[in-house]
Amino acid sequence: MPPVRRGSKGRGPVALALTAGVLVGLLVAATQFRRGGTGSAVSGGGAATTLSTTAGGSGSADTAKLQAELVQALSERDAALAEAGRLRDEAAKAAKQQAATPGSCPDRHTPWGRSAERDKTYPELAEFLKKVAINNEVLVSVSNANYAWPGGMLQVWAENARRAGVKNMMVVALDDDTKKNAESYGLPAFRMDVKIPDSQKNVGSNHAVSALKFRILTNFMKLGYSVFLSDVDIIFLQNPFDHLHRDSDVEGMSDGWDNGTAYGYNDVADDASMGWARYAHSMRIFVFNSGLFYLRPTQASMDLLDKLIHRVETENGWDQALFNECIFFPSSPANKDPSVTRRVLDYMLFMNSKVLFKHLRHDQGRFESHTPVSVHVNYHPDKFERMKAVVKRYVDGDMHALDKFPDGSH
Questions:
Q1: Widest CA span of the chain, in angstroms?
Q2: Where exactly are the structural domains of the chain?
Q3: Minimal CA–CA distance to 193: which of 123, 139, 142, 127?
Q4: How far from each other are the two terminal CA atoms of the chain, in whole angstroms?
């Protein structure tokens, strides 16, 4: 069977007519051959072409046989074309289904979506997310009772996200008290039991809880949801979903404070002992903050999470350091790169507290006119007090709300 070419739609009738013409020509030629040739008679100044017949009417029988063969050939051709179309449609459908299945997507960076089959991997969470997510996206915080008490950081986080227009937010509650408290102030809460690995038990409670998020995120990815993961020490002033590009596996906020530190720069080391070759170039970028990043459900993202889970659960390391090593370190004899695509979020929109307290507030013009999407109090230990001051500055309009705080953590 000849291959069916793309773009051949609409050529069927033409091809059919050509085939029919050829077969009819063959039919006429074969009929004449069997009769011993053609004869011509000319009369009265006009010309007419005639076909002689053989005795017994055998020419008519031959013609009928060839006509039947023609009809049969055309019927078989139509059946072959229909079968080719069916096989093409089935192949396209199978490719589409494969692309939507976690772990089998031919492009490692193409997101998969929800499906009834994937819902079976975690039916309770699947039903919960159907009520909370918008466009298969959700803003998620992970919290325990240390932050979830009424009037505490989790409530302030939720209230300001809601004020900023976020309707698809939730908390993964690590204990019953967190779930109860969150629901009391209107924050959708999903209870999830996740054990802190032995390797993280001595790194401090906040880092130990933070390290759990990678295993938690796999549940959302498998179900086909994109997650904007947020720590609770963040104040949202605009809807963060309105400022995403959605062109990468990971979009993360930076710990950098200017274009170079946030987006990368060429760093040159000087070793005078090397003489002519004293200068060695390196590429530098300040880390993604693991407290605020957007992750799409792709095979590359799953590979990243698998690698992170293994390292977090087998090494006594800081989750943010491991997060960046897994994202940025290339494949080498000692490392297999999960090869995620990544985007740095605008550091002036998704702002860390060093940018705000050390730089922006001392630039009066910009400080008065610029409103970030979010402020993450990541550089300072007095988190809750600075969070409330950020609300006073940007929600209540108090231009002096930040004045009492030092630039650093003195």
A1: 122
A2: 116-260+289-353
A3: 142
A4: 80
Give the residue from 287, 264, 267 showing the smallest Cα distance to 352: 287
- Identify the CATH assignment for 116-260+289-353 out of 3.40.1560, 2.40.10, 3.40.630, 3.90.550: 3.90.550
The pair of structure tokens assigned to 89 is 């449609």
Tens of pLDDT, residue by residue, the chain (410 residues) = 444 344 444 444 444 455 555 555 555 555 554 444 444 333 334 433 333 444 445 567 778 888 888 888 888 888 888 888 888 887 777 666 655 554 454 589 999 999 999 999 999 999 999 999 999 999 999 999 999 999 999 999 999 999 999 999 999 999 999 999 999 999 999 999 987 666 555 544 555 676 789 999 999 999 999 999 999 999 999 999 999 999 999 999 999 999 999 999 999 999 999 999 999 999 999 999 999 999 999 999 999 999 999 999 999 889 999 999 999 999 999 999 999 999 999 999 999 999 999 999 999 999 999 999 999 999 999 999 999 999 999 999 999 999 999 999 87
- d(C-alpha 292, C-alpha 278), whole Å: 39
| Dist. CA 159–CA 84, nearest whole Å | 58
Are 117 and 155 in contact by the 8 Å Cβ rule? The answer is no
CA dist., res. 287 & res. 254, Å (int)? 6
Beta partners for residue 267, in sequence order: 282
